[in-house]
Amino acid sequence: MLVYIDWLKEYTDVNVDLDSFSERMIMSGSNIENITHYGRAIEKVVVGRIEKIEKHPDADKLLVCLVDIGQDEKVQIVTGATNVFEGAYVPVILHGGKLPDGTKIKKGKLRGVNSFGMLCSAKELGYDDKNIPVEHKDGIWILDKEYPLGIDIVEALGLSGDVIEFEITPNRPDCLSMLGMAREVAATFKGNLRYPEANCKNEKGKASDYIKVSIKKPDLCRRYVARVVTDVKIGQSPWWLQKRLMYAGMRPINNIVDITNYVMLEYGQPIHAFDIRNIKGKEIIVDTAKEGELFTTLDGVERKLSSDTLLINDGERGIAIAGVMGGLNSEVENDTNTIVVESANFSGDSIRKTSKKLGLRTEASSRFEKGIDPNLAAEAADRVCKLIEMLGIGTVTEGRVDVYPGKVEAKQVLVRVDRVNKVLGINITKEEIEDIFVSLEMEIETDGNNLLVTPPTVRQDLQREEDFIEEVARIYGYDRLPLTLPKGNKESKKTRYQVLRDITKDALIGMGVNEVQTYSFMNPKGLYKVKTSSENKEFIRLINPLGEENSIMRTILTPNMLEVLAINYSRNIQDVKAFEIGNVFLNITQDEGLPTERENLCIACYGPGEDFFTIKGIVQEMLNKLGIKEAEYIPDETIDTYHPGRCAIISSNNQKLGVIGELHPDVLEQYDIDVRAYCCELNFDLIVNLADAEKYYKPLPKYPSTSRDIALLVDEEINVGRIESIIKDNGSEILEAVELFDVYRGQQVPEGKKSVAFTLTYRASDRTLTDEEVIEVHDKILIALKDGCNAVLRDM
Amino acid sequence: MQTMQARLSEILQEAKTQLNNSETINETESIRIKYLGKKGQLTEILRSMGKLSPEDRKVLGQSANSVRKEIEELLEKKFDELKKIEKNLKLKSERIDVTEPGKRKSLGTKHPITITIEEISRVFMSMGYSIAEGPEVETVFFNFDALNAAPNHPSRDLTDTFYITDEILLRTQTSPVQARTLLKESPPIKIISPGRCFRCDTPDATHSPMFHQVEGLLVDEGVSMTDLKGTLDSFAKQLFGNEVKTKFRPHFFPFTEPSAEMDVSCFKCAGKGCRVCKGSGWIEILGCGMVHPNVLAVGGVDTERYTGFAFGMGVERIAMLKYGVDDIRLFFENDMRFIEQFK
Asked: Does B168 touch chain A (CB under 8 A)?
């Protein structure tokens, strides 16, 4: 909401400087987005009258003007503008003058002809294109009347003025008006509010003789007020009115349209004017349109309406889309004689739907959407008539045609002084509270320590006690509330899940893996690019995604992780180790109809030092930290995402935790990654379930250990994991550790075989083991290895 | 006898001179062998003493032993000296350039958003708040209705909110966790809920369709707006430094009444006005207010007995301010050169 301070002063007093004014308005709840200072930094721009216009001798598009600036000598100025004429009063910037954008003007020659300054457009004097009056929006500013020649333009037109753009929150549509803002200012500064004059003095004829109104849809149109003005003289508005509109961000059009806009800005009530010539049957019927009905709005666009579009009809046809835009068929024209002034109240929901459906948002529709007090309609209509009378551009007829099916009355609300103080944490007296309410134009009845408060009906946001408590707080001043801390106390908790997640992240970071965060949504193509199994393709799709690339909720983390690898690889980053713990979304409906959401952990890497076993080492170390010590790595050739010979399913307690492997070259190719890369995706919920991060102390060994190294010749297909488990299964309680130290293929090892060497460590916690004890167990292991995987002991 | 005495002095003299001139351990060792070895000069004298009379043998024996002792001492001293020199030479030869880079085990880092959430959480946990989390895919009820959002509020539109069905959406704020907690627990309730949120914003330098919020909720007897101010003022000072000031301005949120926005004095320019605070000296940090009774009522809370406050802040915004990041997209692009700056 743009508030031109000089205009505001018409309704209330502003006695402080702009800085204090802004600060206090912000603190009482009217936040400021921007302040514009018009008429500043303009130098040597004066009023001039064009005395004579001649064609430029050498340029078709230039004119040479002789301009009277109130001095003995006339000034010669060359201009390219086409809207100038002899006798026009115009702003002239003289040699050495300055425009608000900082441009300095000097005398010079234009195609050989001397020019001692420049004729100015409104734009050059600092006005936005969209706010400049139609008459001179494309040329030199033609002043509305005669001004003393040579006087400073800023002074002549009163251009100096500050305009504050207030941020209006959705609960305060009443502040989208000068009066609404004035009410705020008056309350903030304890001033008075002055309402504009709205009573006409010389009314002739009766409105009801000219027009009849009926409302067919009272739920969509709460009130319709019509007034009639005859003998209208359409023309340009006086400068003071144009200026106010311009400073409020609206373009002056003609006096009638300007007055309707002016009153809309004053009261917040949109007004429309019809030419009565075009109202068939002299009646207005508010009804919904027929489905598919075609209607041309005054911007010349033919629009297709639907059966829920509220339409203003005459006896035969639609003449305006209610609250959105008037029709081309009933618009006010230059020869209009009699007008019907519409000041109506339409349902915000209905207008929002229509405006959205038609893709047409106007100043009026956006105000109706936010909600307007129906009690404003009559006074706003009166005010339009009053302004017409004041400007002498029409004859106002007596009376309003006012259809108001269900009058909106203000609701009285109980406000307890104790409750105000309890919520705010202060000690404010009943009297202070009353003062605040009175300053906001509320009516009060007292009942002991309780107040019965009736707000003005424009304040539709004031419904409950809390709403009034906020009024007290903001006018009292948030800054006056002291700082205290809550008295109650509570212990601070993290869930087991949260703690284990923290531990996991810390462990991974300790091993040099960086955390990444990717979108919770993904491109469905990603699932195909990583060739994932069909169960992961059961995804949830957004109705309104920003694009295909963000259109489904991720079912796995790997595709987004691969995008991370890809972007880093494409930027020549040599070495990447990354992890993400984040939600995946499974299309399995849970309580409340929500999909299943759980966290997965994805780790991925590439780089010169990386291979399958580096990422496996990270996973093992992490699982170990979480107390999942017995995870198995079961080779799997069937998962298309991974290299068939370098992939394993990780499981623990017969539950599948996830998959680890070297990514399949076909998958890497999809992401333009030309090096080997590795990835592991785990079900993090399950990991947390299985985790046991509690630590128990095991006494340090008191007795020595003995080690035996063995080298076994086995078939190539026999996995180390299998050999290890045979050793462990047969090691009894004295086998303390098994450690692989060599895998060898080559000389002395037949083709299709390999040699694997382990160190077996034996120890008992309560005695020194004898040779016999060790040999017994060790031999048992060797026999089991022979039986279990045909392992032959080699000489060491 | 006389000659042997003289010989002893001679030997001592010679040994002294030779030891004095000796420069290496090997040389010194050969001096030791020359005089004290099995065939050494002094050894030979001692051996030849058998021929002497017992008296002479006693006298000469004493002299010989004292010479031997003296040589031994000299040798020991010489050896020590030379070993020390040798050790020093070795140490000198082993000099390394300590300014060469270390063999680093590189640490990873948490994502800057995680780091920011943890910093915020740490402050509130120190004040007794627990961490509550909720689903990213939410119902319209918890995301809007339970939070007192008007049924026709534009934020519910398809242009603002991602929907999965008419009733299910991607949460646009972490506030639904408030509503869920209110339904599940009874006061006193003291939680913060960090998490991801989603809005239909095309990514640019300041917008992202996904972002993070930290929401807070306290419901208890006797909670007032001054407590809200005190809590958040303390939070701001802990997060941005003890010297920052806070300013609470009235604002509007459907789920709080009264509502406020909190600004902090610019920690970059100390309130003088700079690029970060756009010249105003203040930076908007969060929204807050006293929980609306309609919201408490959804959770079955006795609104006469209990009052509460809530607040919410954008994590990316705070991270951008704290770290001087000027493009929100950097957070989700995950370029390692960006992430690793937060080690």
From this structure: yes
The interface predicted TM-score (ipTM) is: 0.87
* B183-239 residue pLDDT tens: 999 999 999 999 999 999 999 999 999 999 999 999 999 999 999 999 999 999 999
Burial class of residue A429 (count of CB atoms within 10 Å of its CB; 0-12, 13-18, 19+): exposed
Return the CA Rg of chain B: 43
Q: End-to-end alpha-carbon separation of chain A, Å?
A: 90
What's the mean per-residue pLDDT of chain A?
Answer: 93
**Residue numbers in B near A521 (CB within 8 A):** 162, 170, 198, 209-210
Mutate to test the interface with B, among A515, A548, A564 (most CBs of B within 10 A): A515
Residue B105 near chain A (CB below 8 Å) = yes
| Displacement of CA A338 from its chain's centroid (Å) | 45
User: pTM, whole model, 2 decimals?
Assistant: 0.86
Q: What is the rounded end-to-end Cα distance, in angstroms, of chain B?
A: 86
Question: Which pair of tokens denotes residue B42?
Answer: 């002094």
Collapsing DSSP to helix, strand or coil, B328 comes out as coil
Contact A635, A644 (CB under 8 A): no
A373 burial class (0-12, 13-18, 19+ CB within 10 angstroms)? buried
Q: What is the 3-state secondary structure (H, E, C) of A475-520?
A: HHCHHHCCCCCCCCCCCCCCCHHHHHHHHHHHHHHHCCCEECCCCC
Would the CA dihedral through A739, A745, A746, A750 be positive or negative?
A: positive
Measure Cα distances from A135 to A52, A83, A138 in Å.
21, 9, 8
Closest CA to A611 of A669, A681, A651, A663: A663
Q: Which tens digit of pLDDT belongs to each residue from A143-197?
A: 988 999 999 999 999 999 999 999 999 899 999 999 999 999 999 999 999 999 9
Residue B325 one-letter amino acid: V
Residue A384: alpha-carbon gap to chain centroid: 37
Q: Is B274 on the interface with A (CB under 8 A)?
A: no
> For chain A, what is the largest distance between any 2 Cα atoms, rounded to a whole number of angstroms?
132
